[in-house]
Specification:
Blueprint lengths: L1 H32 L27 H12 L2 E6 L2 E6 L2 H8 L12 H6 L13 H14 L8 H17 L4 H18 L9 H16 L24 H29 L7 H8 L4 H32 L1 H15 L14 H13 L9 E2 L4 E3 L2 E3 L4 E4 L1 H5 L18 H6 L18 H18 E7 L5 E2 L18 E5 L7
Parallel strand pairs: 2-6
Antiparallel strand pairs: 1-2, 3-6, 4-5, 7-8, 7-9
Helix pairs in contact: 5-11, 6-7, 6-16, 7-11, 8-9, 8-11, 9-11, 10-11, 11-16
The structure holds protoporphyrin IX containing FE.
The site of protoporphyrin IX containing FE has 27 residues, from helix 5, helix 11 and helix 16.
Length: 503
Amino acid sequence: MANYTISLMTALAIFCATLSLLYGVYKRRKLRQNPRQWPLPPGPKPEPIIGNARHIPFDFGWLQFAEWKKSYGDIIHLNALGNRIIVLNSYKSCIDLLGQNAIYASRPRFYVVAELMGLAKLTPFLPYNDELKQHRKFLHSTLKKSAVVRFQPAEEKQMKWYLSTLAAEPQNFLQNIRLLTGKLVAQTTYGVDVKSADDKYIVLAEKAVNGVSSVVTPINNLWNAFPILEYIPDWFPGAGVKTIAHEVREIVSHMVPASLEDVKSRTASGDCTPSLASAALESGNYSEEDIMWAAGSLYFAGADTTYGALVACIFAMVKHPEVQKKAQAEIDRVVGKGRLPTFADREQLSYIDCVIKEIARWKILVPLGLPRSVLENDYYDGYWVPKGATMLPNAWAISRDETLYEDPERFWPERFEGEAGNNAVDPFTYVFGFGRRICPGLHLADSIMFIFLTTILSTFDISKSIDEQGREMEPQETYVPGIIQCVISLLHTTRARVQLATI
Ligand code: HEM
């Protein structure tokens, strides 16, 4: 009995010693990670084991994150199954942290997108490494403000094509915007003239982009914690994401290399249509591998976003006829009625610039940006930002911040006019992301929005549809869950303002 008591005491002592040793190791590790011992940013109370996994909304997360701002402030911490997520709800925190600081320039590991879909080498999914720097060098040199000027004649030409479709088949205006953006991106990237919506560039790319957009949501990123997904049978609940992933992989592994091969064989046979890919090949500054993936990225990152931006232009004009009239008056005054607007008119179309800014703010296309990952432990605004955390910039919350914009829900381009307007935060400084990962397609997207809006407004009136009782129908806003938020159906009518044949 005595022996038994001693051994129990010894066991207890060993247990306590082990516990205090483990606690010591844990404390030392915590101290090494967070020497200042500052707290994590606040957030909803985590549940045992799963943390905040049940709190993170499946879709439209930016709305919930903005709501939480009222209780927890600009910076919110969530812990989902060990994955730390930090939401930045203010312009200042996004600029301060994601602005130029290299430690915030990486991306989290996108297991589904990178490994299952085979997209690890596309620019948006690369971590912050030498390969990314090469991609960005190439993209910057070909898409910077002064460089995109050379795509303007092609953009003006494609807009004429779009006008002809608007006159001939107005009911297909959405499909034709899709085709227009596909044409512009394919032409810019590969020098290909896409002829119809059935073209492989449009059909396959759209399928792949939709697949990616549907899985890159905060909740889907949780799959990153479970690479075991690969071994789960396709029929298992929740494994539907695997089927999408395999389809995308099929398309991408064929399309990305084939598109570059196409450029090479056309160049060899004397076709000199300029494109980003042909310019990069000619320069000899980049490896074929880098050109192939950086060029492939443009379709993925550019087509759907630009499409969304153009649909948002039409949506805003249907909803706000008073803005449409004012914009048309400016175009008529500067351009007249005998020709179409060109980029040369832009400097004099200051109200149009305000309208474009307001559309970008009011209909945020990528409301949570693309997630970033922190490379080093950091401290900000009294809080610890742990290494490895996923950062989500809530661009939607910025666009609705009443300290930045008066009556933020209102569509009101005049907020950017005059001296007060010059002091208002320009939406282009956050809707395209930040710092070292800012969208390289910003200037291209801006120029396409300009030529689209001015060309259409100079030639057409856009108005609400009329129902059988002769009443105006309000356009409905319906969105599909995903990283890109685009109005998916739009009821409206268009009426030509001028004889198209004469211009
Ligand atoms: C209105 C249209 C567009 C919007 C709102 C938009 C928005 C964004 C955003 C928010 C990011 C993430 C930036 C960050 O992490 O800070 C991004 C990245 C990117 N965008 Fe865009 N974009 C648009 C059009 C385009 C176009 C037209 C192209 C190219 C033709 C393009 C190419 C890219 C690429 C390659 C990246 C990845 C950059 C990187 O990870 O380093 N985007 N875009």
